[in-house]
Amino acid sequence: MLEEIKHVQATADLLHSEQQVEAAIDNMAQEINIALADRNPLLLCVLNGGIPTFGKLLTRLTMPLTIDSINASRYQNQTSGGSIEWLLKPETPLKGRTVLIIDDILDEGITLQAIYHYCRGQGAAAVYSAVLVDKILDHEKPLTADFVGLHVENRYLFGYGMDYKGYLRNAPGIFACKE
Ligand SMILES: O=P(O)(O)OC[C@H]1O[C@H](OP(=O)(O)OP(=O)(O)O)[C@H](O)[C@@H]1O
Ligand SMILES: Nc1nc2[nH]cnc2c(=O)[nH]1
What we know:
- This protein is an alpha/beta fold.
- The protein has a single domain (23-154), classed as Rossmann fold.
- Helix content is 27%, strand content 30%.
- A six-stranded mixed sheet has the order 4-3-2-5-6-7. Strands 1-9-8 form a three-stranded antiparallel sheet.
- Helix 2 (18-35) packs across helix 3 (51-58).
- The longest helix has 18 residues, at 18-35.
- The protein is globular.
- The structure holds 1-O-pyrophosphono-5-O-phosphono-alpha-D-ribofuranose (PRP) and guanine.
């Protein structure tokens, strides 16, 4: 397995450098600081991929806020998605809260849509979403994200939380696997 991981890493294309990604996160944070300034938001980290984006946004946000996590996984360390497994639900009551869902990538949108509906079903007053990467597809998605870092071509990506078979989430940039 580790040989495969090393090969994928060595042959991948760098699409966005660490510097570019950090600048994109700065921009997202600025937008969120304006949009949610007086909303006492509950930030929901979508495990596992959302961890770096969540952490990097967190210290750039200036309003009073609280945090929790959710884990709705659809890829299960594979490179194509299946049905959603609910692995963790937030402890915090969502009723009446403004929720900001934070994830690494919006691809088909199935994961984000499911989490959005979950939050609404729990009585959240407003639900926003922030994704580091919005993958450009040739068809419509079931929802759009409110805050997007980068729009990226339709290839299998890793880095900044995004995994290749569970690995490479720590890669310092946004990389695309060779076909
Ligand atoms: O828009 P979609 O096509 O639904 O895909 C996006 C989801 O896929 C990844 O999660 P994954 O299920 O791989 O879990 P992970 O966060 O643990 O990697 C990613 O973190 C998003 O949550
Ligand atoms: N790591 C990773 N996870 C995804 N989930 C949906 N699309 C992708 C992708 O391109 N890369």
